[in-house]
Amino acid sequence: MRVRQLTAAAAVLLLVAGLGGCSDSPAPARTPEPVPASADPTTTTGDVRPADRDAVEDGGVLRWAVDRVPATLNVYQPAATADSALLAHALYPSLFRLDEHGRPVPDPDYLAGAVSTPPGQEPQVVTYRLNPKAVWSDGTPLSVADFTAQRTALAGLDRAYEGGHPAGYDAIDVIAEGADPHEIRVTFRRPYAEWRSLFGPLYPAAETATAASFNQALVGGAHLTAGPYTVSQYNDEGGRVTVGRNPLWWGDRPKIDRIDFLATPPEQRLDDLDQDGLDIAPLTAAVDQAVSVAPSGSPSAPSGSPTAAAAPPAAAPETAALALKRADALPNVTVHRAAAPSLTQLTVNAARGPLSDPALRLALGQAVDRRRIADAALSPLGLAPAPLGSHLFAGDQEGYRDNSGAVGPADAAGLFDGAGWKRPAGGGTRAKDGTELALRLLVPAGSATAKRTADALTENLAEQGVAVQTVTASTDTFVKEHLAAGDFDLALFSWPASPGSASEQRPTYAKPRPNADGTVNPGTNYGRSGTEEIDRLFDRASTELDPAARLDMLQEADVRIWQLGHSVPLYQRPELVGVRTGVAGVGAYGFGWPRFQDVGWSS
């Protein structure tokens, strides 16, 4: 499955509007991303040049831009980033892959089959049939020991393990060998509907069996791997990770001899593509955060200047448009565009001021013209905008349904009036008991798309009599000092879409609980509104093994979230990826990730 299970502390590194490297690829955690940019949710996520293996040459080198050399390849460690996840897909097994609609399908390179006991039969037992050819880089077959050690490391039962605790591992009771060493039987202490998300990636027992081994940074080429490639160079100071063909690989022979993953700042990527220094470069941040468009061969932004060091420079929409125009005009480069599996929403703080009134939150939600905002945010990127109608599903994801009508007829003015917020004769800002309806909108600093979105929203709500003041915050402060502290009225950011995962989505909407001192602990529910009913729907969905019944529960949860006025879904973020002419199997992946053995130069 997609790697989205990093700890919150690690994923904060991904929040900056300057996502680069493979950070423009799917984010590896359900952690807020203040990067509001998206694509048409009625289209498919992926925009990848197909790789016809017969037409791909054997040999050659590819140069792939990443943010930095990862501090670890273990995606479950706090230091992991999306670059860690990208490299892990080339080096480690994932039992399931996601198709273009977010559906998990077995990867036959690792998994010959997998079956769970039917709904209603307890205990739930999942039987994995491993590909008998699958071996670690020392020739040792994948085995029950690897599964058992990973469960121990990630279940959260031993605090000595310094990592995240992805949903599901704590639901496992026993892991045992089945009829032979290639059959793994996993018995759950309670039903777990999202069992396909487990063991992806899977690490060798040598790296996870003890807390000491698990806590070590997983870097360099001395560690066991089991992918189409192995690490041949890991140079942090030189900003390069090189992978080469795995001599023990049992599947389709990788087409490329070598891939160089090069640490390249977003502001440098257009120049490097132009000067034939890169073949693949995520460009979302290069466009969205563009502060100047320098001639080829000169720096795009003085990253060492006092201004850049002190705070993110302003990213004007006009400058972003010039950067995109330049990207599209690069010779022998195609800019791939697709909807990222990341849901941008307007979160409403129910614990602050007048927004504690559910009636006002509903009125505000009805007043937001989602289509108008999506158009302002996305059309300049060359993406067809469409409003998102679900808190839980991306528009191209299996199970998507527009539930926005659950709040009733679109009568924002009537709802404002009913909540007591009247508009003065002749127009102006609504008021109640002598207090004007003036709200502060928190947006990420340095994002041109955020500015376009905020400007459209401010104009939209002003027409409904709501005054909005935009406040920007840097990546370093956005979550800790604002979202977590409740220092906002409205906030604009994105959540990674979790394909049908009730366990991962529940904390975003869980009812805040009181601390021992009486204060409220919202967890990661930054909207600070919730109900016992919504919590129960998520809990039931996470244990419901019947897919249709489970989907019904998630849809009902989404309806209740709409009716609570928790937040307003707006649109999906975009992926923009520059790819050199002739490179096949690469582009904007949406839900998926590269099938590295197919990537190469087409003949």
Helix-strand blueprint:
Layout: H1 8-11, E1 47-48, E2 61-66, H2 82-91, E3 96-98, E4 104-106, E5 111-116, E6 125-130, H3 144-154, E7 172-177, E8 183-188, H4 205-208, H5 211-215, E9 229-235, E10 240-245, E11 258-263, H6 266-274, E12 280-282, H7 284-288, H8 306-310, H9 317-329, E13 333-348, H10 358-367, H11 370-378, H12 412-418, E14 431-432, E15 435-436, E16 438-444, H13 448-462, E17 467-473, H14 475-483, E18 490-496, H15 502-509, E19 513-514, E20 520-521, H16 532-543, H17 547-564, E21 567-580, E22 583-584, E23 587-588, E24 600-601
Walk me through what this model shows.
The protein has 603 residues and is of the alpha+beta class. It is 26% helix and 21% strand. The protein has 17 helices and 24 strands. β14 and β15 (435-436) form a beta hairpin. The longest helix is centred in the last third of the chain and has 18 residues, at 547-564. The two termini are 31 Å apart. The model is unreliable at 1-29, 34-44 and 292-313 (pLDDT under 50).
Q: Could you provide a short overview of the structure?
A:
With 603 residues, the chain is α+β, with helices and mostly antiparallel strands. 26% of the residues lie in helices and 21% in strands.
